[in-house]
Amino acid sequence: MIPAAWERRHVLSLRDFTVAELDIVLQTAHSFQEVLSRRTKKVPTLQARVVANLFFESSTRTRNSFELAAKRLSADILNFAPGTSALTKGETILDTAKTFWAMGAEFMVIRHQQSGVPQTIAAEMDRLGGHVGVLNAGDGCHEHPSQALLDLFTLCQGFGSDRPRSESLKGKKVAIVGDIRHSRVARSNLYSLKAAGADVHLAAPPTLLPKEFDCYGATRHWQVEPALEKANIVMTLRLQRERMDQHLIPSLREYHQQFGLTRDRLKQCHPEVKVLHPGPVNRGVEISSDLMDDPHFSLINQQVASGVAIRMALLYLMGNYHTGPLT
Amino acid sequence: MIPAAWERRHVLSLRDFTVAELDIVLQTAHSFQEVLSRRTKKVPTLQARVVANLFFESSTRTRNSFELAAKRLSADILNFAPGTSALTKGETILDTAKTFWAMGAEFMVIRHQQSGVPQTIAAEMDRLGGHVGVLNAGDGCHEHPSQALLDLFTLCQGFGSDRPRSESLKGKKVAIVGDIRHSRVARSNLYSLKAAGADVHLAAPPTLLPKEFDCYGATRHWQVEPALEKANIVMTLRLQRERMDQHLIPSLREYHQQFGLTRDRLKQCHPEVKVLHPGPVNRGVEISSDLMDDPHFSLINQQVASGVAIRMALLYLMGNYHTGPLT
Amino acid sequence: MIPAAWERRHVLSLRDFTVAELDIVLQTAHSFQEVLSRRTKKVPTLQARVVANLFFESSTRTRNSFELAAKRLSADILNFAPGTSALTKGETILDTAKTFWAMGAEFMVIRHQQSGVPQTIAAEMDRLGGHVGVLNAGDGCHEHPSQALLDLFTLCQGFGSDRPRSESLKGKKVAIVGDIRHSRVARSNLYSLKAAGADVHLAAPPTLLPKEFDCYGATRHWQVEPALEKANIVMTLRLQRERMDQHLIPSLREYHQQFGLTRDRLKQCHPEVKVLHPGPVNRGVEISSDLMDDPHFSLINQQVASGVAIRMALLYLMGNYHTGPLT
């Protein structure tokens, strides 16, 4: 089952993921999805191996998704709660990570409000020769690779054939709508969608879509209509309420009027358009409530379900890198 | 072991529980109590199935009791901590629940400070056809079915024969004393005790025992003495300190003088009277400290022990409903 | 594997630990370290037995270390989070502990900011005849036995032969440097190091090293140099930032200048000196950053690793006391 080509100990960014690597992740996730459809949704793959969930920034959805993925691989899990942590006692982040390494953690799933923290920890782990795989579960505004991979998996299953392959998105028009500037989800998706050959359009108010985004090979729009036109896929992004206090948007209501996805706006898209949102959703802001619940368009629940399979796949592949094929 | 008559996917309220259903729960809990007396206190019943503990209101005792019950059934557990949750990010409670459903949770144990939340989530799960069983672990002042069932189990074991049956409480005088008005424990117990044929008396200051309680078929008293007289069972309820600030009681000391259970007051009861409290106890308020520790009268520790067996039974029965008899 | 001489249900203090007992712990930990070097780092020893982690004082490192130790013995774990606890509802600490006992916990790992709490709980558990083993995971300024035992284990492995024995520290000069007055780590280490026959020197400013420490049979110094001279081992202690506000030290900078361990100061020690710190470390306060990271001197990472093996050993030995040899 393990493709020979997987050579990553860490999953930190999708920037240099090849199509072949994307397809390895998709196919491995597909196999695990089959496991999840069984009566006993568990495999002994990572038995007695330790996954440390180091969520310096709090999270419900992603943390639980990783926790469940790890449990279904029979791993043991250590959780790090920022509130009760040694950090408040003056310890550095690297020392915290090293403590988990010294205890025996072989995987670290790291979320941090600052960009680059998972990369720094991964470099330190490599320096220690510690055989630890680091997975970026969201760092600042930088990247959130597992989210983009689960989006890709969800979309390839929606558009493709039996076995999900990234090429099924070739030439598809994807509109990413919302607070692109602060979105690690958007950045990771830009890499994977471009690698898959999709035609990516970005739409946001100018304050939330600066020029620097030209480098990604996507088309920028400061209005939502041209992005939505004939789009096969619409990815809505979460809008944080703080953006209003920062004077980046006039109000949530005005944002919704101009950029919120509604049944009406969806008419400009391809008739079989699919809608994604990484969650948690502010109903009536990024997307209208009725549209979110419409299973004909919304793949939001499938995204959550895909998340467990994708994260099982990533831990599995990373674990396989360390120790050779698991038999 | 599974009685044919169990037809509940959810356990939300004891309002319409039949005697037959109560007895199914009691007998299943009795079987699990036997498991808990073994060297290896674990059965593979719910292996790889996911129980989501969604405690929107914080809890030590009930959450740990459910967690241990789930572990002893070999389930995997996801915990939801309200502080670090998506709720603070604007997500609705239903969307939070749907996220856990989409991840693969098959059981949701829900506590919420608002009455009706577990019911709303259960209805949504049914609408989704999601084969999810919802268990109300306490909703506002409304109900706390697993607490009343563990009280029933504890009492039937105290009064009955080898196999606990609800009929062993027939005709027994039960005094429920304390903050009945705000008590979900009292409301659930009223249903199960009346179904079992007990003679239920309520005692509290008028501010904590309004007229609406007449509908339950219990006798109301605004003084404790008539309720205690010849009582076979006294259930004391937790008094929250806030009640003083709300001017519902003059002071904790005065409350104790008028309604606190003491060794002296107990003399009015049946000589073999048994005392319960759902915990956590304010020693010297609801009950005097020495009485609480007297194993001749107090069943408080047995209640906690029964809790694990009852919760194993409920999860087992709910799980059995979904998928047919587990062999 | 189990030595016949282990007769402790609880591990509360190292005050009266004999050399024979220390060696039993070291040898059992050594066996578990062998388990931890295997592919499958897990043994079924405590399967389905419940370890309650009652950390009334928050902790990352010690709590996770115990959690991992318990998981590697296949135990089930209940966690107590002080913030969300029944304590805030007026319950006494003893009642909280009794709740976990009544649920079926057989081990309680207790940390509390007040000295003596684990001892009180252990006495209550014995009174209840509850076959519960209590482990002190740090009580106030009193003791932290598992930390001192992991220090001993780390040192014996650094200095001794294949199988760690406490006699390998006989005659070694150990300098304990830092906030000795408030250190439960120092107190526990004083007992075990003296039992092992080490020559213990204490160094701290007078405000942090009062006269009462004369009773331990160690040499007191109010300057660091005489303690470090030809020392084989230097134990640095954590300095809490509060000590500055309490006017016990002038500033962190001045503390570091006078008592901080640096590469320069280390030249006074034995050339093969080993440096320990219980963590979390304030880099540049108790110890200079470069020295902390120098694997030639620093055993800090080994301490963390030893922690898991030592805690497995303690739970194992305590568990064995209850029920007879596990076969």
TrEMBL record, chains A, B, C:
<comment type="function">
    <text>Catalyzes the condensation of carbamoyl phosphate and aspartate to form carbamoyl aspartate and inorganic phosphate, the committed step in the de novo pyrimidine nucleotide biosynthesis pathway.</text>
</comment>
<feature type="binding site">
    <location>
        <position position="62"/>
    </location>
    <ligand>
        <name>carbamoyl phosphate</name>
    </ligand>
</feature>
<dbReference type="InterPro" id="IPR006132">
    <property type="entry name" value="Asp/Orn_carbamoyltranf_P-bd"/>
</dbReference>
<keyword id="KW-0808">Transferase</keyword>
<dbReference type="InterPro" id="IPR006130">
    <property type="entry name" value="Asp/Orn_carbamoylTrfase"/>
</dbReference>
<comment type="pathway">
    <text>Pyrimidine metabolism; UMP biosynthesis via de novo pathway; (S)-dihydroorotate from bicarbonate: step 2/3.</text>
</comment>
<feature type="domain" description="Aspartate/ornithine carbamoyltransferase carbamoyl-P binding">
    <location>
        <begin position="9"/>
        <end position="156"/>
    </location>
</feature>
<comment type="similarity">
    <text>Belongs to the aspartate/ornithine carbamoyltransferase superfamily. ATCase family.</text>
</comment>
<dbReference type="Pfam" id="PF02729">
    <property type="entry name" value="OTCace_N"/>
</dbReference>
<dbReference type="InterPro" id="IPR002082">
    <property type="entry name" value="Asp_carbamoyltransf"/>
</dbReference>
<dbReference type="InterPro" id="IPR036901">
    <property type="entry name" value="Asp/Orn_carbamoylTrfase_sf"/>
</dbReference>
<feature type="binding site">
    <location>
        <position position="89"/>
    </location>
    <ligand>
        <name>L-aspartate</name>
    </ligand>
</feature>
<feature type="binding site">
    <location>
        <position position="238"/>
    </location>
    <ligand>
        <name>L-aspartate</name>
    </ligand>
</feature>
<keyword id="KW-0665">Pyrimidine biosynthesis</keyword>
<dbReference type="Pfam" id="PF00185">
    <property type="entry name" value="OTCace"/>
</dbReference>
<dbReference type="InterPro" id="IPR006131">
    <property type="entry name" value="Asp_carbamoyltransf_Asp/Orn-bd"/>
</dbReference>
<feature type="binding site">
    <location>
        <position position="61"/>
    </location>
    <ligand>
        <name>carbamoyl phosphate</name>
    </ligand>
</feature>
<feature type="binding site">
    <location>
        <position position="279"/>
    </location>
    <ligand>
        <name>carbamoyl phosphate</name>
    </ligand>
</feature>
<feature type="binding site">
    <location>
        <position position="184"/>
    </location>
    <ligand>
        <name>L-aspartate</name>
    </ligand>
</feature>
<dbReference type="GO" id="GO:0004070">
    <property type="term" value="F:aspartate carbamoyltransferase activity"/>
</dbReference>
<feature type="binding site">
    <location>
        <position position="280"/>
    </location>
    <ligand>
        <name>carbamoyl phosphate</name>
    </ligand>
</feature>
<feature type="binding site">
    <location>
        <position position="144"/>
    </location>
    <ligand>
        <name>carbamoyl phosphate</name>
    </ligand>
</feature>
<feature type="binding site">
    <location>
        <position position="111"/>
    </location>
    <ligand>
        <name>carbamoyl phosphate</name>
    </ligand>
</feature>
<feature type="binding site">
    <location>
        <position position="147"/>
    </location>
    <ligand>
        <name>carbamoyl phosphate</name>
    </ligand>
</feature>
<protein>
    <recommendedName>
        <fullName>Aspartate carbamoyltransferase</fullName>
        <ecNumber>2.1.3.2</ecNumber>
    </recommendedName>
</protein>
<feature type="domain" description="Aspartate/ornithine carbamoyltransferase Asp/Orn-binding">
    <location>
        <begin position="170"/>
        <end position="318"/>
    </location>
</feature>
<comment type="subunit">
    <text>Heterododecamer (2C3:3R2) of six catalytic PyrB chains organized as two trimers (C3), and six regulatory PyrI chains organized as three dimers (R2).</text>
</comment>
